[in-house]
Amino acid sequence: MGKDVIIACDYASAQQTFSFLDLFTEEKPFVKIGMELFYAEGPAIVREIKRRGHKIFLDLKMHDIPNTVKKSMAVLSNLDVDICNLHASGTIPMMEAALKGLTRQDGTRPLLIAVTQLTSTDQQHMEDDLWIHAPIADVVMHYAENAKKAGLDGVVCSPLEAQKVHDCCGKDFLTVTPGVRFAEGELGDQKRVMTPAQAKEIGSDYIVVGRPITAAEDPVAAYRRCVKEFVD
Ligand code: C5P
Predict the structure, then answer these.
(1) Which residues, at least 6 apart from 115, have a Cβ–Cβ distance to it below 8 Å?
(2) pLDDT at site 25
(3) Which of 28, 45, 117, 182 could bond to 41 as cystine, CB 3.0-4.6 Å?
(4) CB burial readout 198-221, b (16+ within 10 A) else e
(5) Considering just the CA atoms, what is the radius of gyration of the chain in Å?
(6) Can you list the alpha helix ranges (DSSP code H) found in 122-231?
(7) Bridge partners, 83 (sequence order)
(8) What is the pLDDT of residue 71?
(9) How many Å apart are CA 183 and CA 25, to the nearest integer?
(10) What is the domain partition of the chain in residue ranges?
């Protein structure tokens, strides 16, 4: 899979999601389904979006004991999603078990990427709540290296970290980056952002874009602008 724009479909119902996706009559964007939509609508929403011809990143961020993660990943693999994810903090044995669970009998499997430290976690909370005392940038890189050691395909990270992740883990190790905004756009609750063109420049493999597309006056035009800046 090459560079692509993934739309974060952060909706609470199938109805809202399909009225949004129905706007796209000429293209089939790559779609991210997160916990909100998945918990609301279950696997049926994944099957229906897949049936409509979209690629799917199922963003469920698993974190549990290896055996549970392995069996749950096998379920997602049967759903035929394209990318799924987990927390690298679940440790290397958990990530290895996840890969085993994802791999189908014929050897194929969805891509598996890891969340390192959530961008909502800052140095202070990492130290006070989690008792991790290394600099957060080093922790992110260490978790990315663990994901690589476990055989995963990449990480979700800030576009500002993408270059360093590629330096540490190789250029084929995928960086999937949210926190993308148009140059003149609203930041919303995102703090450290890049434009699609800047994300391309620093080597992100996929950008995850939500509100700049979903809340745009013309979502299809906003999506096309992302593709033009990031992919073309
Ligand atoms: O609307 P916006 O473009 O900010 O949406 C970004 C999407 O990426 C949301 O679904 C959000 O949950 C997700 N995300 C993020 N930052 C992370 C991980 C995921 O913004 N570190």
Answers:
(1) 61, 85, 86, 87, 88, 155, 156
(2) 97
(3) 45
(4) bbbebbbbbbbbbbbbbeeeebee
(5) 17
(6) 123-128, 136-149, 159-169, 196-201, 211-214, 219-230
(7) 57, 111
(8) 98
(9) 27
(10) 4-230
Q: What is the pLDDT of residue 1?
A: 57
Does the annotation count 32 as an active-site position? no
Question: What is the C-alpha to C-alpha distance for residues 63 and 76, in angstroms, rounded to an integer?
Answer: 14
Task: Find where tokens 């290895």 sit.
Answer: 96
**pLDDT computed for residue 186 by the predictor:** 78
Q: Which structure tokens are listed for 180? A: 């993308």
How far, in Å, from the CA of 93 to the mean position of ligand 1? Answer: 27
* pTM exceeds 0.90: yes
Mutate to test the pocket of ligand 1, among 60, 83, 160, 208 (most ligand atoms within 8 A of CB): 208
Classify 4-230 by CATH class.
alpha beta
Q: What is the mean pLDDT of each run of 10 residues along the chain (232 residues)?
A: 91 97 98 97 98 98 98 96 98 98 97 92 93 95 98 94 95 95 83 90 96 97 98 92
34 in contact with ligand 1, CB cutoff 6 A: yes
C-alpha torsion angle, residues 139, 140, 146, 152 (rounded to 10): 170
Catalytic residue among 61, 100, 164, 200: 61
Distance separating alpha carbons of residues 168 and 35, to the nearest angstrom: 30
Apex CA 149: angle with CA 143 and CA 153, to 5°? 80
The whole-angstrom separation of Cα 174 and Cα 165 is 9
